[in-house]
Design a protein that fits this description.
By secondary structure, the protein is mostly helical. It has helices at about 5-10, 15-35, 40, 45-60, 70-105, 105-110, 125-145, 145-155, 160-185, 195, 200-235, 245-255, 255-285, 315-335, 350-355, 365, 375-405, 405-410, 410-415, 420, 425-450, 450-465, 465-490, 505-540, 545-555, 560-585; strands spanning about 295-300, 305. It is globular.
């Protein structure tokens, strides 16, 4: 393509450069406005005390309770966590689909020819107003963290994995609805123009034109979101969601670190297993862009050979459906109490239909009456600076680390490089590249496999409660998440783009692959930033401070009007970030 043409110039992603400037300004504000305490590193006495404290913590975790009774208990809680995550994701998919249809401009509004500011004006037509309303609903659903939904649901149906599943479902519905709508809006209009030309309406155009073109990406992102839900389900128990999180929080309060070590080990094994399974399915759905009709494998001689073609997505959908059925069965009939008696955790669902659960929401009326006096609102705005500062600095650190290991993390540049460099590496060089690939992917997998809250506990043991511990927890987890999607963006590049150059793999990565994948990296980074803002709010529960801590404190002390104001601030943050990314054309999802 001629990049000097007027059309190419108009399509350059100017919004990304504006966003980079905004991030730099936010970074300066975060460093200036928040109180960063590095005394655990600079003060010798505090550094020694912190090292001794974290040493004791790690020694205790390294000696987990492996008794038969507690292992059986941990296994039961693991299955509870898994079933809650799968059920929550399944409910979210069902609810998100129609909400996303309403929030998608291509599906709900049309107006493919509309341009400029007019496309963002919600009162231009009834359909545009419906689209704006659906977007606002999905903003609210995902802006309220799952732990806040759990606090509200505990008051309605009590403690248990069902509470965790429903809290996850509400939050994930907003996330999936946003991404689904953006995937559908991201389909080029010319690709389904023939369907419209045949006289199809909006629904028919969606069913036969837009939906099939985005189906693989939709299923791929759903699997990735289910994997994230498993990590969140392992944490949400701390506020009444049952499963591993509830037990970890309980044992921490009693200082039973050997039992905490066992539970964290089960959490890590669960999340890593989910990570591997989801990655395998997503690779099958995505296929290999460097293979033609049949797959190609690299031999030790540097030649290619035919293999299997990518499988159809039906089997992945069947697997997802089977796990959803299992989660319903397990939560209803597969659970056991501590005494071994069967317990149906789905029973409280009946209270929703009889109305009994709604009678316990007397406080909800007060939640709808936020305290809005100027002095208090100023305090709320100031409390929002803490999660924003943590998310900004943590995202930048995690992004930098993900880019730093991307060359090692890429299968194209570590394992498949002979396909486009023409080299014939010896056994020693191939072994070194394989070792780097395994090390980078293992680092990323552990980083994202351990929830942010668990990382925060580790850093709090060294730095103490505060912004530094929360920021490092966000940064480490962001490293794991972005390393995977950054690596996929590079591995999705066709190898033919590298062949005419003939440089070394590292030079090709730095001069060709990284610039080509940069826009995808930027898109994923801004998506992760929004997620990190919500995660930073959640970290307020464990001593980081800010919005999460203030909301939970006021809610527990029945100051519902004040809690409502903090809740509104959470929603406002998400809406501002979302609308800003849409206006700057950053809200673009790739497979």
């Amino acid at each position: 393509m001629n990049t000097s043409s007027p059309l190419a110039l108009r399509r350059r992603p100017w919004g990304h450069f504006v966003a980079i400037l905004a991030v730099l300004l936010a970074l300066g504000a975060a460093l200036a406005a928040a109180e960063w305490d590095f005394a655990a590193l600079t003060d010798p006495d505090r550094r020694a005390a912190a090292a001794a404290r974290i040493g004791e913590w790690l020694v205790a975790l390294a000696s987990p309770d492996l008794s038969h009774e507690f292992l059986a208990r941990a296994w039961e809680l693991t299955l509870q966590t898994l079933s809650a995550a799968i059920l929550g994701t399944a409910l979210a998919v069902v609810a998100a689909y129609p909400l996303a249809m309403g929030a998608s401009r291509a599906v709900c509004v049309g107006e493919e020819d509309a341009r400029g500011v007019w496309r963002h004006f919600p009162l231009r037509s009834p359909r545009a107003l419906l689209c704006a309303a659906c977007r606002l609903v999905q903003d609210v659903l995902r802006a309220v963290p799952d732990f806040v939904w759990a606090i509200i649901l505990v008051a309605m149906i009590g403690l248990g994995p069902l509470t965790g599943a429903l809290a996850l479902a509400l939050n994930i519905t907003g996330i999936l609805a946003r991404v689904y709508s953006e995937l559908w809006d991201g389909v080029e209009e010319t690709r389904y123009a023939q369907v419209r030309a045949l006289g199809a309406g909006r629904i028919a155009t969606f069913l036969y034109g837009i939906r099939p073109l985005a189906s693989r990406n939709v299923l791929s992102f759903t699997l990735m979101r289910a994997e994230c839900a498993i990590r969140n389900a392992a944490v949400i128990g701390a506020v009444g969601g049952g499963g591993l999180g509830a037990e970890i929080w309980y044992q921490i309060r009693f200082g039973a670190w050997d039992k905490v070590g066992t539970l964290i080990l089960f959490t890590l094994l669960l999340t890593l297993t989910a990570d591997l399974a989801a990655n395998h399915i997503r690779r099958q759905l995505r296929g290999d862009p460097n293979r033609a009709a049949a797959s190609v494998t690299w031999t030790t001689a540097g030649h290619s050979q035919s293999g299997r073609a990518p499988r159809a997505p039906w089997w992945a959908a069947a697997f997802v459906s089977a796990t959803a059925v299992w989660s319903v069965w397990f939560m209803g009939w597969g659970n056991r109490d501590d005494d071994g008696a069967a317990r149906n955790h789905l029973a409280p669902l009946g209270e929703f239909f009889t109305g009994e659960a709604w009678t316990r929401l007397g406080f909800f009326e007060r939640l709808l009456s936020p305290q809005l006096d100027a002095a208090f609102v100023l305090r709320v705005v100031e409390s929002a600076s803490i999660p924003l500062a943590i998310a900004t600095v943590g995202t930048l650190l995690g992004t930098a680390a993900a880019i730093a290991i991307n060359h090692w993390h890429s299968a194209s540049f570590q394992w498949h490089a002979p396909r486009f460099t023409g080299e014939t590496p010896g056994v020693l060089r191939r072994s070194g590249r394989a070792a780097r690939l395994v090390a980078a992917r293992a680092l990323a997998m552990v980083s994202r496999g351990v929830p942010e809250v668990t990382w925060a506990f580790l850093f709090i043991a060294f730095f103490g409660p505060g912004l530094v511990a929360g920021t490092l927890a966000i940064a480490v987890h962001t490293l794991g998440v972005l390393a995977r999607v950054f690596g996929e963006a590079v591995d999705n590049l066709p190898h033919r783009r590298f062949e005419p150059i003939g440089a070394s793999p590292l030079v090709l990565w730095g001069t060709v692959a990284a610039p080509m994948a940069w826009r995808d990296w930027m898109t994923y980074t801004f998506f992760q930033f929004e997620s990190n803002v919500r995660a930073a709010v959640v970290l307020g529960l464990i001593g980081v401070g800010g919005l999460g801590f203030e909301f939970a404190f006021n809610f527990e002390w029945f100051r519902f009007e004040r809690a409502s104001t903090y809740l509104l601030m959470m929603v406002l943050l998400t809406v501002l970030i979302d609308r800003g990314s849409r206006m700057l054309r950053l809200a673009r999802v790739g497979a």
